[in-house]
Amino acid sequence: MQLEVTGPVFEWRGPAPHHFVALLADDAALVREVAAAVTYGWGMVPVAVRMGAARWTTALWPKDGTYVVPLKVAARRAEGVVTGDVVDLVVSIDV
What we know:
The chain has a 7-stranded antiparallel sheet. Helices cover 22% and strands 47% of the residues. By secondary structure, the chain is α+β, with helices and mostly antiparallel strands. The longest helix has 14 residues, at 25-38.
C-alpha cells in the first residue's frame, strides 16, 4: 500500500522532541484497515518514507485518532525542512 501524504511539519515537545506530519482522516482509515496485519506492537505500523530525495524506514505512530509520520533529522536536514513547512511524502506499507 502506498499513500501520498501532504501536510505541515509539526514538532512534538516530549522527553525527546521530534518532528511529524499527520495523516488525513481518509489515509488514517486505510492504515487502520491493515494495521493489525503489520503492526509490531503499541499500534506502530512499519513504513518506508520518501520526501524528495530522502528515503528512510520508520513506523507510523497512532495519535489523536490518526497516525503521524516521524521525520528523521537527517531527512529534514537533507531537504531543508523546518517546522511549519508543508511537505509531500510517499509512505509505503508492506501488506
